[in-house]
Amino acid sequence: MPVSHTTDTERNFVHTIFLGELDDDAVRERARKLRADPRFNDQMPELVDLSGVTGVSLTAEMMRVSARSLLHSSGVPCAIVAPDDRVFDFARAYQVLRERNNIMGLRVFRDTPAALDFLLDAGAIVEGQAPDGQAA
Q1: Rounded Cα gap, residues 20 and 133, in angstroms
Q2: Entry pTM
Q3: Collapsed DSSP state (helix, strand, coil) of residue 35
Q4: Which of 7, 27, 51, 114 could tie 109 with a disulfide, CB 3.0–4.6 Å?
Q5: Strands laid side by side in the 46-56 sheet
Q6: What are the DSSP calls for 110-135, one per residue?
Q7: Which stretches within 1-136 are classed as H helix?
Q8: For 14-64, what is each residue's pLDDT tens digit?
Q9: pLDDT digits over 78-91, tens only?
Q10: How far apart are CA 83 and CA 66, in angstroms?
């Protein structure tokens, strides 16, 4: 599964996009890429776009490991966009696992405008253009 991200240091914000099958390798690749990005820091809010995900085949172990990992500090806003019902349900389960680990700040949305509103309302990003060209 291709995964890419844009780090917007001016607005202190990360935009990650997953395409295709969401599997263990894709989750590891995202973590590796973010940690290797010299512009990324753990205080940066993130918009994770799962709109292009066609299926989810994450193992239960990867879900648990990922839910405990701290790419971002606890409480840093993260918005996941998941319009597909199956992907949305997975993302909500992930949110619950994170909260059980006392890692707060993650919310799941059906569309990008609602996710961007959440990040704006949280003071996480500066109003302007999102990396994908949509008005924030």
Answers
A1: 22
A2: 0.87
A3: helix
A4: 114
A5: 3-8, 13-22, 46-56, 78-81, 106-109
A6: SSHHHHHHHHHHTT-S-SSB-TTS-B
A7: 24-36, 60-68, 85-100, 112-121
A8: 999 999 999 999 999 999 999 999 999 888 899 999 999 999 999 999 999
A9: 999 999 999 999 99
A10: 21
